């Protein structure tokens, strides 16, 4: 699978310079060079923009099985809306995305002119604008993690990314059973865990969240390589990334974990400057673990995550 992804000229030059510098050592510095290259890739992701288009290809992640996959929120929110989401896969690709909010009358939020007018006046966007934009973005990107947050509709964008990711996982398994989200339920006590299957820049992600007394009391999100090393404890990676981005995994992982415990809400966790990609991944997985905790489903979530690389 191939598609176009944007990256600025400046970030490309910067990333290339860092990688070349990292590769200048001798054979006994291979491990250090590998960490430097991975760290520079992290920086490149964080500094990407829409100024130049790059061609990307999928190098890992299970293929999507044809069918229609559905997700619904069980309860209406305090404004009288709940999400209904259908995603269609044909010939292994997402061909349709129908994400919207429905009220008790069956009306769609994207058709509500009064809601659109009021929201657009405050945030410069509204459901008639951001809902189609999100749906189109998923079809274009073929990957929930690559759908960008719409300015002025952050909450809806992050909900979309979370639910789209769960539908992608269902499509990889070919499971067309409707996913029900207990969106207003309290968190049930237990330990909830998630792990990605495929390494990106040499690292897979692990996430464990503990709920006690209906509250998130522990969050442990980190990375692991094929040697079993922990990303936040890798000094070479930390040094290289902090030098180029001003922050490294020993800094941003604890910050993100602490924020989730404090905020009790994945959407309220702020992106760490210099670690945008990792922050967005954290928020995506945390939201899915919270959904699991709302159901009390402690089964480990194994994600056959999609990994993209630049076409050389």
TrEMBL record:
It holds the Pfam family FMN_bind. GO terms for cellular component: membrane. It comes from the Bacteria. Residues 80-171, 202-293 form the FMN-binding domain. Residues 1-21 form the signal peptide. Residues 43-61 have a biased composition (Basic and acidic residues). NCBIfam families: lipo_FMN_PplA. This is Extracellular electron transfer flavoprotein PplA. It comes from Carnobacterium maltaromaticum (Carnobacterium piscicola). The gene is pplA.
């Amino acid at each position: 699978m191939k598609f176009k992804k944007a990256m600025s000229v400046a970030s490309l030059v910067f990333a290339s310079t860092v990688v070349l510098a990292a590769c200048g050592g001798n054979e006994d510095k291979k491990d250090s060079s590998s960490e430097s290259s991975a760290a520079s890739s992290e920086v490149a992701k964080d500094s990407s923009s829409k100024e130049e288009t790059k061609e990307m290809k999928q190098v890992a992640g299970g293929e999507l099985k044809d069918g229609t996959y559905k997700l619904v929120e069980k309860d209406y929110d305090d404004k009288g809306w709940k999400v209904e989401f259908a995603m269609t896969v044909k010939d292994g690709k997402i061909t349709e995305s129908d994400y919207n909010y429905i009220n008790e009358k069956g009306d769609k939020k994207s058709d509500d002119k009064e809601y659109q007018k009021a929201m657009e006046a405050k945030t410069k966007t509204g459901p008639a604008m951001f809902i189609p934009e999100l749906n189109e973005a998923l079809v274009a990107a073929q990957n929930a993690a690559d759908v960008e947050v719409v300015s002025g509709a952050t909450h809806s964008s992050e909900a979309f990314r979370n639910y789209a990711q769960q539908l992608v996982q269902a499509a990889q398994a070919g499971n067309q059973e409707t996913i029900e989200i207990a969106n207003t339920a309290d968190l049930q006590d237990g330990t909830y865990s998630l792990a990605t299957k495929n390494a990106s820049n040499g690292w897979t992600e692990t996430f464990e969240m503990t709920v006690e007394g209906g509250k998130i009391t522990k969050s442990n999100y980190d990375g692991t390589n094929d040697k079993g090393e922990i990303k936040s404890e890798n000094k070479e990676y930390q040094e290289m990334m902090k030098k180029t981005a001003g922050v490294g995994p020993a800094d941003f992982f604890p910050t993100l974990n602490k924020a989730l415990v404090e905020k009790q809400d994945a959407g309220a966790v702020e992106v760490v400057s210099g670690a945008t990609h990792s922050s967005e991944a954290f928020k995506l997985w945390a939201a899915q673990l919270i959904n699991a905790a709302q159901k009390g489903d402690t089964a480990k979530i194994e994600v056959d995550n999609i990994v993209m690389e630049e076409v050389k």
